[in-house]
């Protein structure tokens, strides 16, 4: 009750300031509001490549600033901070921008009625969905009617939602309660990375120079998603002792914990030379996907893009029933993932040793979830923005 009251007061104050700044002229300006940032960065780089003249502002949360750190010409402002002037500046840019591009759920949208001529695009931060989100999230049923109404208001402000596939488009229509006419079939900008083959070899060489241990061993990337009850107390269910005993001579583990997870355990120190911890935000997840020979994950969205590289995926879903009940999964998990589902570390080891994976299943999965993500997604989005919102989108044959 108190939380809802605080949110209501905040949104009312936001609306008053926003409506004041709506009296100012609409500017040829694009404002990115980011929690993740990678998709937005690809769009900005394409804007630069095309030499489009437009003012660019980035309102960032958390560590997402890192994606725009190198661009001095971009105005970067912490979003929803406790600094009064930063709040005022943020609202000013939102109220006076021609384009507002967001990559997550942002409550402020519930109270912003953008003026005619402005457009709000939702980039989202995943190419696919295993977990339910938006209005399909299990937790929504326990929220107040006021909160549910606010969620719908936020989703209604999306003029377009970027999609990489029809199947993800269907998920958005349900999760955001939006019509299919709002779906923009450009492909997902950050997937462009997986088509830049010349760049791949440079990145891999750079990673090996940084750590020679990556050179001669098979690399297993373990990238689990977070559990709500483990954000401050992470439990490693993958038995690293057993993995080291069975695979340690020929393999190394690349560990990538979700950024929301806080852990005091230093697994790299516990298993020197076998576990390399790449959980820090300074390491680009795409670079890890490139160098990995195998991916072990669970309910993360990483497989949608990793599948473009046509390398094996193992789904270590040790708590499948519990997680499905608490968070909700989009459909039958065992049938939707493109690889074996296991619950024990011994089964992970067996799969890796036998190295028998259904690569045709993986290829079909990659094509289904990346139908419109063919290497020109950023180009397509920028063309939509700058060519009177009516362009023929570029297509390219899949690499898988």
3D architecture notes:
The structure is a single chain. With 400 residues, the chain is α/β, with parallel strands linked by helices. It folds into two domains: 2-188 and 373-386, Rossmann fold, CATH 3.40.50; 197-369, 3-Layer(aba) Sandwich (Rossmann fold), CATH 3.40.50. The protein has 15 helices and 13 strands. The chain has helices spanning 2-21, 38-49, 84-96, 145-156, 166-175, 197-210, 240-247, 267-270, 285-291, 302-306, 320-327, 333-336, 345-354, 359-369, 377-386; strands at 27-34, 55-60, 75-78, 97-102, 119-122, 160-162, 183-184, 218-222, 251-255, 275-277, 294-297, 313-316, 341-342. The strands form two sheets. Strands 3-2-1-4-5-6-7 form a seven-stranded parallel beta sheet. It has a six-stranded parallel beta sheet with strand order 10-9-8-11-12-13, with helices on both faces.
Brief overview, please?
The protein has 400 residues and is of the alpha/beta class. It is 37% helix and 14% strand. The chain is globular, with a radius of gyration of 22 Å.
Blueprint (SSEs and pairs):
Layout: H1 2-21, E1 27-34, H2 38-49, E2 55-60, E3 75-78, H3 84-96, E4 97-102, E5 119-122, H4 145-156, E6 160-162, H5 166-175, E7 183-184, H6 197-210, E8 218-222, H7 240-247, E9 251-255, H8 267-270, E10 275-277, H9 285-291, E11 294-297, H10 302-306, E12 313-316, H11 320-327, H12 333-336, E13 341-342, H13 345-354, H14 359-369, H15 377-386
Parallel strand pairs: 1-2, 1-4, 2-3, 4-5, 5-6, 6-7, 8-9, 8-11, 9-10, 11-12, 12-13
């Amino acid at each position: 009750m108190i939380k809802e009251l605080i949110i209501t007061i905040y949104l009312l104050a936001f609306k008053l300031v926003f409506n004041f700044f709506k009296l100012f002229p609409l500017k040829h300006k694009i404002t990115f509001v980011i929690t993740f940032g990678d998709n937005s960065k690809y769009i900005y780089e394409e804007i630069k490549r095309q030499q489009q003249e437009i003012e660019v502002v980035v309102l960032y949360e958390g560590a997402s600033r890192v994606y725009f750190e190198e661009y001095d010409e971009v105005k970067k402002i912490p979003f929803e901070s406790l600094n009064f002037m930063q709040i005022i500046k943020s609202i000013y840019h939102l109220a006076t921008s021609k384009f507002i591009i967001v990559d997550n759920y942002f409550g402020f949208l519930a109270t912003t009625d953008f003026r005619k001529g402005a457009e709000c695009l939702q980039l989202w931060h995943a190419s696919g969905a295993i977990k339910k989100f938006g209005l399909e999230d299990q937790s929504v049923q326990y929220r107040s009617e006021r909160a549910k109404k606010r969620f719908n208001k936020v989703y209604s402000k999306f003029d377009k939602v970027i999609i990489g596939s029809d199947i993800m488009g269907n998920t958005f229509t349900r999760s955001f309660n939006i019509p299919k006419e709002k779906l923009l079939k450009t492909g997902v900008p950050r997937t462009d990375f997986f088509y830049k083959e010349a760049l791949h070899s440079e990145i891999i060489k750079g990673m090996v120079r940084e750590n020679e241990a990556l050179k001669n061993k098979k690399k297993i990337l373990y990238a689990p998603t977070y559990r709500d009850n483990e954000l401050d107390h992470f439990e490693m269910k993958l038995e690293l002792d057993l993995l080291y005993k069975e695979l340690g001579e020929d393999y190394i583990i690349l560990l990538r914990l979700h950024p929301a997870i806080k852990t005091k355990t230093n697994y790299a120190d516990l298993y020197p030379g076998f576990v390399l911890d790449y959980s820090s935000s300074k390491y680009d997840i795409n670079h890890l996907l490139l160098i990995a020979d195998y991916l072990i994950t669970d309910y993360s969205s990483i497989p949608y893009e990793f599948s473009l590289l046509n390398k094996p995926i193992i789904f270590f879903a040790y708590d499948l029933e519990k997680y499905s009940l608490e968070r909700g999964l989009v459909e039958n998990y065992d049938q939707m993932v493109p690889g074996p589902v296991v619950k024990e570390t011994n089964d992970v080891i067996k799969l890796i040793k036998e190295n028998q994976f259904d690569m045709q299943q993986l290829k079909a999965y990659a094509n289904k979830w990346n139908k419109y993500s063919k290497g020109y997604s950023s180009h397509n989005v920028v063309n939509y923005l700058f060519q009177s919102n009516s362009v023929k989108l570029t297509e390219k044959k899949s690499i898988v």
